[in-house]
Amino acid sequence: MIILAIDPGTTESAYVLYDSETMEVLDKGKDHNFWLGEHLSKDLNLEGSPWRADTAVIEMVGHYGTGMPAGKTVFETCIWIGRFTEILEKRCLVSRLMRKTVVAHLCGTARANDSNVRQALIDRFEPSGGGKTPQIGIKSNPGPLYGFAKDMWAALGVAITYAERVK
Question: What pLDDT shows up at residue 45?
Fold first, then answer.
């Protein structure tokens, strides 16, 4: 199954296109929300497109009982979750996963932090590149996770959590 996973943000969103059968990252990146939406509305599931996806999964904003009020950025992100959902529903099945669900699935506890999630993701891939973290690798000898940065890790976590929970 080819999964398009999105970690939405207020102005930019990270995405990963992941093949759950081969456990391979087919594409990844981060783009301005407007341009990502345009790309998805035109290219997803077109014949010959490298972005053929069977399903899409978007990280969902949630309330975690902190007592803090939600700010403008939370609501902006919610708008983009809705816009991406509307675009994608015309082309494939769309699901949403809460961040705490992803963290708990990957790390065994919802209290894990971003570095724990990153390490749990790295541990799921073969060490085939060079350098001290061969799953990531180096420019001259890249691993399967070469080029991942910041929010792309969150999008990968969404893809892998969805894939493993669906199986």
Answer: 59
